[in-house]
Amino acid sequence: MNRTDEIEIVAIDGAFGAEIRGVELARPLDDATFAKIERAFAEHLLLCFPDQHLSEAQQVAFSRRFGELQVHVLQEYRHPQFPEIYVISNVDPATDRPIGRHPDPGTLVWHSDLSFQRRTASATILYGRETPMQGADTQYADMAAAYAALPDNLRRKVEGRRALHDLDYSRSRAGAARMTEDQRRAAPPVLHPMVRRHKVTGRESLYISHHISAIEGLPAAESRDLLAELMEHATRPRFVLSHRWRQHDLVMWDNRPTMHRATAFDTGAERRVMHRTVVLDSI
Questions:
Q1: What is the pLDDT of residues 103-130, one digit of tens each?
Q2: Which residues span the domain enclosing 50?
């Protein structure tokens, strides 16, 4: 059993996020220990748990402590025994060798997980089972800080507006495989406010994503230009944290006030196997 007094929370200097030391997530978490992790998550938005050794069942069990888990509409990425796990792997299970292409190009662009659903995501929990020696960092943008620093002219353009989030459109733009008709019916485009208030912290944040296909009430060209300007602002270095993966890191982040993207790596020489679980936001 983990002990609450052994947990150390170390904030990341100059950025949001914290590293959690002294906890083994494969072992049972009592209520006091879990409450401490929950408080740290609410405060820091992103938590890194280094050197974790989890089975699939243990990752699902830990993730489920935070709420209901998503089963992704893209069934080709689902783990065969644990459908709550979205597998991002460039390793061919038949040959046990890298396939030489990125398994999910949609992860390489700035986005917020599940913004394409009516019920969006609160936490994403990503476990690095195998991580490359070089590349494949994950970058995170603090959208609350970006919104607080938004120039007045841009703030006026987004307040009260909604944007249309569309997974199939997003995958097409990223060069990923298009969705099937059944998948499109299961995940139709959905409108979300461009500014959201966090249910726990009360802070407002910009809510944009590569999944956005249009801004309600704006012509297509104006919509594209505004989104590009907002993306450029929100992903400036002062708002971005970059995580260099180590083998067996587990990182969880709050999708409501953040965006993220993966960076490229040598998909023909390096192995990268990531298991992702996503906690649905409360209704």
A1: 999 999 999 999 999 999 999 999 999 9
A2: 4-280
